[in-house]
Amino acid sequence: MTITVAVDAMGGDVGLKVTVPASIQFLQDHPDIHLILVGDQPALEAELALHDGAVRERILIQHATQVVGMDEAPQLALKNKKDSSMRVAINLVKEGRAQAAVSAGNTGALMATARFVLKTIPGIDRPAIAKLLPNVKGTSCVLDLGANVDCTPEQLLQFGIMGSELMACLQGKANPSVGLLNIGSEDIKGNDNIKKTAELLRQSELNFYGNVEGDDICKGTTDVVVCDGFTGNVALKTAEGLAHMFAVFLKEEFGRSWWTRLCALAALPVLGLFKKRIDPRRYNGASLLGLRGIVVKSHGGADVTGFRYALAQACEEAGSDVIAHIADRVAKQLDNLKQSEAEAN
Amino acid sequence: MTITVAVDAMGGDVGLKVTVPASIQFLQDHPDIHLILVGDQPALEAELALHDGAVRERILIQHATQVVGMDEAPQLALKNKKDSSMRVAINLVKEGRAQAAVSAGNTGALMATARFVLKTIPGIDRPAIAKLLPNVKGTSCVLDLGANVDCTPEQLLQFGIMGSELMACLQGKANPSVGLLNIGSEDIKGNDNIKKTAELLRQSELNFYGNVEGDDICKGTTDVVVCDGFTGNVALKTAEGLAHMFAVFLKEEFGRSWWTRLCALAALPVLGLFKKRIDPRRYNGASLLGLRGIVVKSHGGADVTGFRYALAQACEEAGSDVIAHIADRVAKQLDNLKQSEAEAN
């Protein structure tokens, strides 16, 4: 199957100076992929002309007259920016002309627009932001990372289903384990909402491990970690802050004197490999899960390398039929619920 | 002033094989401090006999017949363990025989016991767990780290006051800045509870910076970061997990071949300094703030070095009169509240 991805070429802190080179590099590495670059046609053509033309035949330009500002209120963007590069890219997914859309634009506007245009999968109340993150054993999926501040137990169960299917589709995990982020492993921990969620997860057909704690994310205790968007966002950003602090400290220690700089020189090849391994750009690309179409959010400040990873994430999802899998699983969960309600009556 | 600290010598995963050597080392470094080791007298005497006796004259043993289990339910410990090493250590603070208590025991039981025995400062609803953590600029205080799952705006304001006074007393900060942990810096972010808290903090006499995000903790954007115990606990443990993962990755990269091991050897002195700088043992010792007495919680798995840092934290608090400062500030805050209510009527 040929996969076509719609790219919001104007989104992000930098815009087409990042999205266009990233798109070209990505196409060079992936000969089966087609891209539709959405944005200001003359500007896009001018930027494309600066780069190698060999992949040009797999690039289509879709003109869009507007751009959503990085700080624009989601509801205003939805109302007033009907011809934005973001909106048009999502329309292309809706119309079936693209199998996925990627944007480095304003997260709130992207979520609101995607939800409005694509709608949620039946049985999913609200989409969630999910990310595949590294851990000592491999990769796990954490969601929600900021779309939903407060979540009901039912919504958290839906996140569990979505994360589980994403891990099954993208990582080939059979029956991925699901953990509920809490402040202790015992059942008595957390508030009523968390306890009810644990109960629902236990009754579901998911491979529910039980409560996990913050350190279990990087330990890789479970394949999926479920949490509300407030907690998930704080956890993710705290980790980003710590990673940055470690980089600063390492640089300071190796830069103290000519002697420590010599040590750094000797260790450089290995430090380079370490740096590459924890490079956040490799994990760029968060999935807006629960929609009837694939939408991937790149970090607004992503560079060319980072944006390429977001494009790769979109293609992997498009190639794995993750939405059909989520829809199936949610439908089954709803059937089970109805059946157990009928039995109870 | 001579400071005397009561040590729950039986608490923690290991107990007196950690607490006793740590106490002795600590006394060797701090000639003005006295310690009361609380626990099983014969066992304590046997352990003390294995170590250098020079500081023995500054150690008092207080016999206690019981030990609180690490997994014991707080309410059961409170009811059934009235002669536990933990309870007796806190009693010594209550009676004025010690200026602070340190325990590596069960956090829930320690909090419940401390609250029951010492009571909270007037105007403080619930104590919080606070920790001084490193950031790229220096040190900040984060609270609550797990004592209170759900918090009212009033309680979060109280945490702000307590954290602010702790930073003023221990770090000599004049008018420490206070940030409210949220998922975005804009005022519209977060749920109603967070927005009401921001409003209260803005109206207070605290140096309120506004919302901060997870990465601001390590950036050192504010001196104090206020959050509910659920969010704070997840953030702290996520950071711990990431730090551990980085250590594993560094070890793996440097251990790949004889060549990388050679690189490691060359970089060892600098890597050692880096490791020392981020050593979590240096930040061991969380304060149970809001009580009418100083109680410091050591990590249950702390080793001798870690426990020494918890003892140091207790002594610093005891020497700085932090409780009187918190009490003053809270009283003022209550007065202001009454006055503005009177003006409103």
TrEMBL record, chains A, B:
Signal peptide: none annotated. One of its GO terms (molecular function) is phosphate:acyl-[acyl carrier protein] acyltransferase activity. It comes from the Bacteria. Keywords: Acyltransferase, Cytoplasm, Lipid biosynthesis, Lipid metabolism, Phospholipid biosynthesis, Phospholipid metabolism, Transferase. Pathway: Lipid metabolism; phospholipid metabolism. The keyword Amino-acid biosynthesis does not apply. Its main location: cytoplasm. Gene3D superfamilies: Isopropylmalate Dehydrogenase. It is an enzyme of class 2 (transferase). Its EC number is 2.3.1.274. InterPro entries: FA_synthesis (IPR003664), Phospholipid_synth_PlsX-like (IPR012281). It is found in: Cytoplasm. It holds the Pfam family FA_synthesis. It catalyses: a fatty acyl-[ACP] + phosphate = an acyl phosphate + holo-[ACP]. Belongs to the PlsX family. Catalyzes the reversible formation of acyl-phosphate (acyl-PO(4)) from acyl-[acyl-carrier-protein] (acyl-ACP). This enzyme utilizes acyl-ACP as fatty acyl donor, but not acyl-CoA. PANTHER family: FATTY ACID/PHOSPHOLIPID SYNTHESIS PROTEIN PLSX (PTHR30100), PHOSPHATE ACYLTRANSFERASE (PTHR30100:SF1). This is Phosphate acyltransferase. It comes from Chromobacterium piscinae. The gene is plsX.
